[in-house]
Specification:
Chain lengths: 141, 440
């Protein structure tokens, strides 16, 4: 009898412990606020950056080689995000990292780039193709 | 949203003949659940085939390939010898099903609230889909590019190719409504759970088992391949659990096929294939060969991956050196694992179940063995990881433990229900000893 009582308790617990109350009440929460929250989540404080990348995409064509310059050229937490995010928004183009997994600059990659997408930073002297959303797209050749 | 819905519907429609060709006895929830799972896999196969044949992906070429698969499956349905069906008990609606229904509605609202947002979506799964969609094919040059190794080129492609299919129907890339596929994977798995458990347990217990794993089936990692992996792995192990017990050809067939599809979803699915082989070797060694469809399904990707020498980050550098270093500090590894464990109370109840029903440990040794071996694989990976240990554990351990939680939870609910209804010594329910149906 005791084992049956324990079994009943364990069974109820298995169902109850897996019941996600937040999930159950999600349809009744303010959808618009959550939409904004999750839309902003990938970019945190860099809200303008994806819009800048959209602009870069609009002003380049498939096959173009684009190097990314952002305020802090350190890999962990900054450049890695900027480079991965640019790879997602600029598919079809070749996004070239100016550093990779370490903070050491890769000069040969800078040489290969057709364009520099410079966001919230100062870029070198070059032809401005487009500017907006906190950045500038420079043509190198 | 329309494109995502049409894609999910197309997958289900294509999956019906594939399911019928595999199992002519499938009906009701089982047919519907398996139809989506096999249809999603057929979509992956269609785009992979077009890519290998150098036929550019368009909505027309993708649909034509899917229709060919559906027609071939329909024509093949009479070729397989039909094994006897299971007990054929269909689940009936139960009050406890409302828990599952409420959670599915909540999940649908959650996972479609915005564009898929996880880092691994836009840096891995969604990124590949978008690259391939624009190329109109799998872009091997992109995968081989050393600057793209952050996207884990070695990861299997079932999920990215499903995303790409939605993009083809949409006329271009959009990540806004891809969450619809997540709802479909979760719902398909829960339909399979409900159907399989109803075949061996009272209706209320089947309903309770489904409700207990509803949240597990609904991956909150928006955009990652977890949802597909959990769906394929969970349904595979539940079929194989029954296969080990009853030795029905149909269960072996579904189990092996779904296991192969799990291996096409994530690298953890490939590990699960090995863990399952060990589980079968321990519990039904003569039946090990029955897993051959799983190997056949994962072989194309393994060959393509080897042919293109796509790197695996875990295998980089000196694995043995890292392993030896971490073994010397094993206490630190386990301390981090303890900190990062989610659902500790659920795991505690799972362990306690085998104290309450001690004979269940032997009866369910297949599921217990596979779960344990898979967890050992995961922990061993942490000992060999080239990444920072704390970061790697904190960003993955909760997902990995969720991946293996579904079959063992279903098993525990069934064991507990059986003790409640019939007493532990009543023997194993199944085709030859299905329990009496108590009124719901």
């Amino acid at each position: 009898m005791l084992r049956r009582i324990l079994a009943a308790c364990a069974l109820v617990l298995l169902v109850a412990l897996h019941f996600d109350y937040n999930m159950a009440r999600f349809p009744f929460l303010e959808r618009e606020a959550f939409h904004r929250h999750f839309t902003r989540m990938p970019d945190g404080q860099w809200e303008q950056y994806p819009r800048f990348l959209d602009g870069v995409r609009a002003h380049t064509k498939p096959g173009d080689r684009i190097a990314i310059v952002v305020p802090s050229m350190t890999w962990d937490g900054v450049y890695s995000y900027a480079y991965y995010r640019a790879s997602y928004f600029l598919t079809g183009r070749e996004v070239i990292p100016l550093l990779y997994r370490t903070d050491a600059p890769i000069a040969s990659n800078l040489e290969r780039a057709d364009y520099l997408a410079v966001w919230q930073s100062r870029g070198p002297e070059a032809t401005v193709v487009w500017q907006g959303e906190g950045g500038v797209l420079l043509r190198r050749r | 949203m329309i494109a995502a819905l049409i894609a999910a519907l197309t997958m289900t429609v294509v999956g019906v003949p594939v399911t019928v060709a595999t199992d002519r006895s499938a009906r009701g929830p089982l047919l519907l659940g398996l139809a989506f799972l096999y249809g999603s896999a057929a979509t992956c196969a269609a785009l992979l085939l077009l890519s290998v044949l150098h036929i550019t992906w368009t909505s027309v070429s993708a649909m034509a390939a899917l229709m060919l698969i559906a027609i071939a499956a329909w024509l093949a349905r009479g070729l397989t010898q039909e094994p006897p069906p299971a007990t054929g008990h269909q689940p009936r609606p139960h009050l406890l099903d409302s828990i599952t229904l409420i959670l599915i509605i909540g999940y649908a609202a959650y996972i479609t609230v915005a564009s898929l947002w996880e880092w691994d979506f836009w840096a891995i799964w969604g990124l590949k889909a978008r690259v391939f969609l624009e190329r109109g094919s799998i872009d091997w040059t992109w995968l081989e590019n050393r600057w793209n190794d952050f996207a884990h080129p070695d990861y299997p492609l079932l999920v990215p190719l499903n995303y790409a299919f939605v993009g083809l129907l949409n006329g271009g890339w959009s990540d806004r409504w891809l969450g619809v596929l997540f709802v479909a994977w979760a719902a398909a798995l829960l339909l399979v759970v409900r159907a399989l458990t109803a075949d061996e347990a009272p209706n209320w217990a089947s309903s309770a088992a489904t409700a207990a794993v509803a949240t597990v089936a609904m991956s909150s990692h928006a955009g990652m391949a977890e949802a597909a992996l959990i769906a394929y792995a969970g349904s595979a192990l539940l079929f194989l659990r029954r296969a080990v017990r009853d030795d029905r050809a149909l269960d072996w067939r579904h189990g092996a096929l779904l296991l192969g599809l799990a291996a096409n979803s994530k690298n953890e699915g490939i590990a699960l294939l090995a863990a399952t082989a060990i589980g079968i070797a321990v519990t039904a060694p003569r039946r090990l060969v029955r897993l051959w469809p799983a190997g056949a399904l994962v072989a194309p990707w393994m060959l393509l991956r080897a042919a293109h020498t796509l790197p695996t980050d875990i295998a980089s550098g000196s694995i043995l050196g890292r392993f030896a270093d971490r073994v010397a500090n094993a206490d630190q590894v386990f301390a981090v694992l303890g900190l990062a464990l989610v659902d500790p109370w659920s795991w505690l109840v799972i362990v306690l179940t085998f104290f309450i029903v001690p004979k269940g440990l032997r009866r369910e040794r297949f599921v217990v063995a596979v779960t344990a071996v898979q967890l050992v694989f995961y922990v061993a990976t942490y000992f060999a990881t080239p990444h920072d240990l704390q970061w790697h554990v904190m960003t993955s351990w909760s997902r990995l433990t969720r991946q293996v939680q579904l079959p063992i939870t279903v098993t525990c609910v069934l064991l507990l229900a059986q003790l409640l209804v019939r007493g532990e010594d009543a023997g194993c329910p199944g085709r030859s000893g299905a329990p009496d149906r108590s009124p719901s």
